[in-house]
C-alpha cells in the first residue's frame, strides 16, 4: 500500500493568514485513489526546516507532495531545496521559459530577471504545465521516492492536479476507494458514536463519525480492486446504519437538509413561506441557496422587532404583551399568519433569543420556538440551544427544516 505525505510550504500558513485548503483537496483526491495519507506538514519559507521535513518524509513515505514556494522571489525556495536534498541539479526548461516570456508580453507587464527562476526544475523532472499562472509544477523520481511539486494558489493547483497528477498517481495504485456519507440530524455526535461503536472498529469498510454543518455525518469508506465490490460493501453498512438510526437519517453524500425539504415540497406540489426573528433570514437563505427554490418558496419575512411582527404578520399585540415575543403563542401566530398572508400550504416560523445577551432566568439565551402551520394544524417545538449566537441560529434553522421534513414524510415531530 502506497503511503503519501503532504508538505505545504509557506509562512503565511503558519501565521494563520490563509487556510490550507490545498492539503484538504489533495487528501480527498488521494483517498479516492486508494493512497494513504498519514502525515501532513506545514513549514515556513525556511530552507533548513524544509530540509528537515524532507528528511523525515523520505524515511516514512513513498510519495511526497509539496505545495507552495514556486514564485519568483527569494523566499520561494521549494524547488531549490528539494533539488539539494535529492542531490539534483536545477536545469532550465526552455518551453517553460518561452511560456513565461509570452505570459508577460500578452499581459503587457514588465518581466524582471527573477521570473526566469520559475523555469528551473530538478534534473529529470516531468514538467506540469500551469494553464492559470506562471509557475509550473513537476514530478520526478529519486531514491525510490516519487516527488510532486505544485504551486500554492488553489486556482492553479487544483486544475494542475486534476489534469496531470491524478492520472500519474492513478497508474501507481491498483486499489479503488469508494466513500459514502450518511447524514444524521437530531442525535448528538457522542451518542451517534456510542450507537455505532462496534462498527468503528471495522478496518474495511471503515466507518468514521464527523461533525457536519449543524448535523452529524458517518463516512463509510471501502477499499477493493473492483468498484462494484466496494459499493456492495458500503451498501451493506448503510443498511445496518438505517436500521439503527432510521428517521434521523435525512440524506446521503451531497444532500442537504434544505435540498431534501425542497424536493419533498416539489414532489407533493406544496408551497412554503417563512417568518423569522432571531435567525434573521438564515432559514430563507438556506432555502433559496437550492436551485429551483422559487417553485415552492413564495414568501419570506424577517420580523425582528415586536412592531414588525404586529404590522407585517398581524401577530396580536396582546399575545406579545402577555406571553412575549419569544413564546409558543407568538410562534404559532407567526407561522399561521405568514401562511395565510402568502397563501402557501406551509408556514414556518422562528422566534428566540440568540444571545449573547438578552436572556433571563425564565427565558435564557438559546431559547427558541419554532412554529409549523399546515391547513388548520399548528405545531410548535421548543428548543434550548447551547453555544454562541451563530450556533443557536444555525441549530434553529436546521430544526425548522427538520420539522417540515418530518411532516412531509409522515414522521412524528419531536417536541
TrEMBL record:
<dbReference type="InterPro" id="IPR036425">
    <property type="entry name" value="MoaB/Mog-like_dom_sf"/>
</dbReference>
<protein>
    <recommendedName>
        <fullName>Putative competence-damage inducible protein</fullName>
    </recommendedName>
</protein>
<dbReference type="Pfam" id="PF00994">
    <property type="entry name" value="MoCF_biosynth"/>
</dbReference>
<dbReference type="InterPro" id="IPR050101">
    <property type="entry name" value="CinA"/>
</dbReference>
<dbReference type="InterPro" id="IPR041424">
    <property type="entry name" value="CinA_KH"/>
</dbReference>
<dbReference type="Pfam" id="PF02464">
    <property type="entry name" value="CinA"/>
</dbReference>
<dbReference type="InterPro" id="IPR008136">
    <property type="entry name" value="CinA_C"/>
</dbReference>
<comment type="similarity">
    <text>Belongs to the CinA family.</text>
</comment>
<dbReference type="InterPro" id="IPR001453">
    <property type="entry name" value="MoaB/Mog_dom"/>
</dbReference>
<dbReference type="InterPro" id="IPR036653">
    <property type="entry name" value="CinA-like_C"/>
</dbReference>
<dbReference type="InterPro" id="IPR008135">
    <property type="entry name" value="Competence-induced_CinA"/>
</dbReference>
<dbReference type="Pfam" id="PF18146">
    <property type="entry name" value="CinA_KH"/>
</dbReference>
<feature type="domain" description="MoaB/Mog">
    <location>
        <begin position="5"/>
        <end position="171"/>
    </location>
</feature>
Amino acid at each position: 500500500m502506497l503511503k503519501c505525505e503532504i508538505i505545504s510550504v509557506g509562512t503565511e500558513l503558519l501565521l494563520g493568514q490563509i487556510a490550507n485548503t490545498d492539503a484538504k483537496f489533495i487528501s480527498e483526491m488521494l483517498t479516492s485513489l486508494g493512497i494513504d495519507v498519514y502525515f501532513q506538514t506545514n513549514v515556513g519559507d525556511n530552507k533548513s526546516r524544509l530540509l528537515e521535513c524532507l528528511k523525515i518524509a523520505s524515511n516514512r513515505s513513498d510519495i511526497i507532495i509539496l505545495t507552495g514556494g514556486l514564485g519568483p522571489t527569494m523566499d520561494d525556495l521549494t524547488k531549490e531545496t528539494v533539488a539539494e536534498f535529492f542531490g539534483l541539479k536545477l536545469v532550465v526548461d526552455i518551453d517553460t521559459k518561452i511560456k513565461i516570456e509570452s505570459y508577460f508580453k500578452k499581459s503587457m507587464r514588465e518581466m524582471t530577471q527573477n521570473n526566469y527562476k520559475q523555469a528551473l526544475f530538478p534534473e529529470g523532472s516531468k514538467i506540469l504545465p500551469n494553464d492559470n499562472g506562471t509557475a509550473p509544477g513537476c514530478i520526478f523520481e529519486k531514491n525510490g521516492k516519487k516527488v510532486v511539486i505544485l504551486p500554492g494558489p488553489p486556482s492553479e493547483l487544483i486544475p494542475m492536479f486534476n489534469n496531470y497528477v491524478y492520472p500519474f498517481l492513478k497508474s501507481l495504485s491498483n486499489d479503488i476507494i469508494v466513500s459514502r456519507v450518511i447524514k444524521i440530524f437530531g442525535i448528538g455526535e457522542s451518542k451517534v458514536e456510542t450507537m455505532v461503536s462496534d462498527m468503528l472498529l471495522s478496518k474495511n469498510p471503515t466507518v468514521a463519525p464527523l461533525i457536519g454543518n449543524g448535523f452529524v455525518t458517518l463516512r463509510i469508506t471501502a477499499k477493493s480492486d473492483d468498484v462494484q465490490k466496494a459499493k456492495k460493501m458500503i451498501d451493506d453498512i448503510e443498511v445496518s446504519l438505517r436500521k439503527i438510526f432510521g428517521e434521523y437519517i435525512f440524506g446521503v453524500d451531497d444532500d442537504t437538509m434544505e435540498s431534501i425539504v425542497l424536493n419533498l415540497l416539489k414532489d407533493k406540489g406544496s408551497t412554503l413561506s417563512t417568518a423569522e426573528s432571531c435567525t434573521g433570514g438564515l432559514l430563507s437563505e438556506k432555502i433559496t441557496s437550492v436551485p429551483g427554490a422559487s417553485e415552492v418558496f413564495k414568501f419570506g419575512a424577517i420580523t425582528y422587532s415586536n412592531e414588525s411582527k404586529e404590522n407585517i404578520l398581524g401577530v396580536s399585540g396582546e399575545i406579545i404583551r402577555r406571553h412575549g415575543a419569544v413564546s409558543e403563542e407568538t410562534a404559532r401566530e407567526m407561522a399561521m399568519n405568514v401562511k395565510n398572508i402568502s397563501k402557501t400550504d406551509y408556514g414556518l416560523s422562528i422566534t428566540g433569543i440568540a444571545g449573547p445577551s438578552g436572556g433571563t432566568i425564565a427565558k435564557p439565551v438559546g431559547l427558541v420556538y419554532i412554529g409549523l402551520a399546515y391547513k388548520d394544524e399548528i405545531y410548535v417545538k421548543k428548543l434550548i440551544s447551547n453555544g454562541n449566537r451563530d450556533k443557536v441560529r444555525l441549530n434553529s434553522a436546521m430544526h425548522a427544516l427538520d420539522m417540515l421534513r418530518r411532516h412531509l414524510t409522515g414522521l412524528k415531530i419531536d417536541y
